[in-house]
Amino acid sequence: MSVLFATRKRARSVVDSDKRDGVVVEGYIKGHKDESRTTTSIAESFESLGINSWLVKKCSQIGMTTPTTVQQHCIPAILDGRNVLGVAQTGSGKTAAFALPILHSLSMDPYGPFAVILTPTRELAFQIADQMNIFGTFTGVRCAVIVGGMDMLEQKMKLQQQPHIIIATPGRLHDHLMHPDAPNLSLVKFLVLDEADRLLEQSFKSDLTFVLGKLPPAENRQTLYFTATLTEELNQVAGSDSFRFDGTALIKTRDALEQYYLFFPQQIKMTYLMYLLLSLTPQVEETNRQKQRYSKHSAKSLEKTLKSLEATAQAAKSVIVFVSKCQTCELIGEVTRELGLNCVTLHSIMSQSRRLAALGKFTSGLAPILISTDVASRGLDIPTVDVVIQFDLPRVASTYIHRVGRACRTGGRGRSISLVTQHDIALLQHLEAHVGKKMDNYEVFAKEEQVLKLLNDVSVATRCAKLKLYERGFEDKVRERKARRSKQYGRLSDQKSHLAIE
């Protein structure tokens, strides 16, 4: 794969100086073996970046008046024909940083396929396509989203129409490229790896290697890597010749984020979560009680219990609950609905149509609570969230950063609440050490005597939720998925020697 990713040799120095605006800024990339410095100018407007006037006009129409830092540094480098490694936090404008220069170049030489954009998740692919279509309104750009969970025949027809831009997950694009009448990608000018660190993970490497083999040689295309996390593997793959921008410097949480923890026994974890959701979203709870949307078996009991709860926490308009497993995600979703709250779930076992519908309801405000696995922790363009709840603490500190970053994306204040049992103390201490900040105790907003008033109602709701999942055959779906994954990893193991990055 190292050969496929090899960067183009160039005459220019590793230190690139451009005084277009008379201002020089140096960005330091830590961890790179050459410890190279890249220097570029700061453009204070989209017009000064060098993109076409119609793109500048479109940016203005949708409220983008000033380029973000990642856009200021990466767009000129892409327009100069450079390979680029851009590292910036979720919500910093990475998509526009590669979409705008690609559309600029496409307008000068329109043909298809012109660019291939690879993503690790289906939702991110649709999100990128939406932004490409918005930016490319004036050009009639044709985008094809090629991801799993959608009709193969319909996707094949789209590919036969030679779209300008293919946005795909590696596995599904691999499937299409196996066919004799697969699209010809030999003239593709741009390859984009969005969330590049995840695409280099073992589970993607077989498909990624195959797809790269169908593209032009590295010296005949531009390769753009964008990510929120710079790993050593990505650092090596990008090579020393790429223009590099690191807008994160060190992974850290923002000062505007209030970080809390709640400690309690494992046995009442679900009760604590339901208390938080009911106390944080009282306006939603009231609406659903009026509509009788929770189960009738506990209506009177729950009504009485809710009236006795003290309103101690500031209300939230939107909440994300992160969990580690699909089963947990689906169970919490059912329990939440049993207690009258309007929520949606998001995990990998769901069909693509359900996943898109769930995201749409949450981002539009129709469902103020999202229960999700880490598919929503990064990459997806979800508006600012008031509260992030960690039902399951992540094992990797960077995952914690991406999760809680959802709560303060636009500079506002947000809250993160980590649920901690007797089994999670060491993990909590590890996360605190990584972010360099002790979390505050949320107990003042969730007093035990108040929480335990919900114990009976939550127990009943949990039993009902488990019964519903059993009747729907959800456990069967989980087992089928595990079997498919086991078979897939078996194939990957057989090919291991061919996948190593030299």
TrEMBL record:
Keywords attached to this entry: ATP-binding, Helicase, Hydrolase, Nucleotide-binding
Domain annotation Helicase ATP-binding: ranges: 75-248
Cellular component annotations (GO), alphabetically ordered: cytosol
Boundaries of every DEAD-box RNA helicase Q domain copy: 44-72
Annotated Pfam families: DEAD, Helicase_C
Molecular function in Gene Ontology: ATP binding; hydrolase activity; nucleic acid binding; RNA helicase activity
Domain Helicase C-terminal: from-to ranges: 301-450
Family: Belongs to the DEAD box helicase family.
Entry protein name: DEAD/DEAH box RNA helicase putative
Organism: Albugo laibachii Nc14
Gene that produces this protein: AlNc14C624G12273
